[in-house]
Amino acid sequence: MPTAKIRITLKPTVLDAQGAVVARALQSLGFEEVQGVRMGKYIEVELEEGGDTQARVDEMCRQLLANPVIEDYRIELE
Amino acid sequence: MPTAKIRITLKPTVLDAQGAVVARALQSLGFEEVQGVRMGKYIEVELEEGGDTQARVDEMCRQLLANPVIEDYRIELE
Prior knowledge:
Mth169, Chain: A, 3-stranded antiparallel sheet
């Protein structure tokens, strides 16, 4: 059964307030080597065999999983 | 500058209510091939050079980024 592994990240130009907070939290825990943090989503979708899986998963991202205005997504099929 | 790419997922035995809702939403949008969805987090951490990066990022996951009781995490360094 194919699995699509999707990583959704904010576009580089979009301010990531949550990431900035996590970066500061890590630094205050003693991880001074942290330069920056970007938070995203990771989604695994289990699929039935058959069809053009890459195109279908791309359509799922555009319709529901990601917000293409402010987010980028990368799809890996396994 | 090294970047750690961290994928955090719920352990397979933990109920993923959000994933179940997203799976149903995809099916009702016409993606009937969807068998299941698991939601997770994706975090990119930019680091300064030097030190045992893998061990440090592992420590960040255990102390702050993940909840090792219910979550698994995978670290890729680039």
